[in-house]
Design brief:
The protein is mainly alpha-helical. The protein is about 55% helix and about 0% strand. It folds into three domains: about 1-55, no CATH class; about 55-90 and about 100-270, no CATH class; about 275-395, Cyclin A, domain 1 (Orthogonal Bundle). Strands 1-2 form a two-stranded antiparallel sheet. Strand 1 and strand 2 form a beta hairpin. Interacts with RAB1A and RAB10; in a GTP-dependent manner.
Length: about 400
């Protein structure tokens, strides 16, 4: 470790030791990257994502309250439905029409349970393949949710719920565009080959199961948006950062802390996932067009080239913007980009600057390429050095 790096770590420690943290100072430090050592990054993200208050004297009571709230969510949305399902398997004499699985009433508990399963199946499919090039999400967590996994209670975990779910009617997968992929009726689902995923011993759960639970609870609490494909790519890096915190006291509560930080981030980013808002000023269409507007201002020649080839911003910036570049780079590089995004007061404007910088940095390739070559470049971005990209974005910002 170089002297300069040690000094940088010390700067963070000083900033984070203040009883009342100076947010402006912390943002300036974080903008150029946050050290992982000592759990500094995880702590900074919790502050930058407006989770932890700036007054450190409030942390202990605040965290206890938030984690208790999350435990209550688990009880109400995962444990209680599981108990209710078991109780609904009563003898015929004890089952009222209200509790019958064929009851058409949209307010019946069975109807809610089946609707939730549609969302859960999509979440499950997405989280199981989260960062497949890394073993982390398939490994068991050191801190499985004892509230759910206690063998004395035999609660239905989400994993078991998915494995036991076969939809004999229509199976609906929901993506960013709405409802698609309706399967043929009468066909039972074989969701996953038995040898595709490692079977963990009783009382254990993989990290992807924790992410699944976070997303399911978010969907239940936010029915207006529920779950849309891609949210797993946003929660993944946050959970990874918190769950690898070297401080065990923080790591133990990675699930609850991730849930609230993800919820806060989505409160700023959720409009990108709501199709009805696409063409509004807060929607994704406006943001995609903003990338080209900025490019037109910074590099007219390149802008005209892309226009001439009819390469529309939605062909590639949709994924860049909605997923905060999480699909364009390896996870460590995504985390480094997010250090800067989270620390910028106008984080989503800076994301547009980063997207514009990515275009400018490959301008020679784009000017020389035809439509096919350029689309391949933009959908499989060739530069992996995120420091170069962030430096260019800052340069564009300073020259605005």
């Amino acid at each position: 470790m170089s002297t300069a790096y040690r000094n940088r770590i010390q700067e963070f420690k000083v900033a984070l030791s203040e009883e009342n943290i100076n947010l402006k100072t912390l943002r300036e430090l974080c903008f150029n990257g946050i050290p992982f050592e000592g759990g500094i990054r995880a702590l900074c993200w919790k502050i930058l994502l407006n989770y932890l208050p700036l007054d450190q004297t409030l942390w202990e009571s605040f965290l206890k309250k938030q984690r208790d709230v999350y435990s209550q969510f688990l009880k109400e949305m995962i444990i209680q439905p599981g108990i209710a399902k078991a109780n609904l398997g009563l003898s015929r004499e004890d089952v009222t029409m209200e509790d019958h699985p064929l009851n058409p009433n949209p307010d019946s508990r069975w109807n809610t349970y089946f609707k939730d399963n549609e969302i859960l199946l999509q979440i499950d499919k997405d989280v199981r393949r989260l960062y497949p090039d890394m073993a982390f999400f398939q490994r068991p967590t050191e801190y499985p949710c004892q509230l759910i996994l206690d063998p004395q209670n035999d609660y239905e975990t989400l994993r078991r719920r998915v494995e036991q779910t076969t939809l004999k009617a229509q199976t609906v997968n929901r993506n960013r565009s709405g409802v698609t992929n309706v399967s043929s009726p009468g066909k039972a689902l074989n969701l996953y080959p038995s040898n595709e995923y490692e079977v963990l011993p009783n009382g254990s759960e993989a990290h992807w199961e924790v992410v699944e639970r976070i997303l399911f609870i978010y969907a239940k609490l936010n029915p207006g948006i529920a779950y849309v494909q891609g949210m797993n790519e946003i929660v993944g890096p946050i959970y990874y950062t918190f769950a690898t915190d070297p401080n065990s006291q923080w790591k133990e509560h990675a699930e609850a802390d991730t849930f609230f930080c993800f919820t806060n981030l989505m409160s700023e980013n959720r409009d990108n996932f709501i199709k009805s808002l696409d063409d509004s000023q807060c929607g994704i269409t406006y943001k995609m067009e903003s990338v080209y507007s900025m490019l037109k201002d910074k590099d007219m020649e390149l802008y005209l080239k892309l226009e001439e080839q009819n390469i529309k911003p939605q062909y590639f910036t949709f994924r860049w913007l909605t997923l905060l570049l999480s699909q364009e780079f390896l996870l460590p590089d995504v985390i480094r980009i997010w250090d800067t995004l989270f620390s910028d007061e106008d984080r989503f404007h800076f994301l547009i600057l980063v997207c514009c910088a990515m275009l400018v940095l490959i301008r020679e390739n784009l000017l020389a390429g035809d439509f096919t070559v350029n689309m391949r470049l933009l959908q499989d971005y060739p530069i992996s050095d995120v420091h170069t990209i962030l430096t260019k974005a800052k340069e564009l910002q300073d020259n605005s």
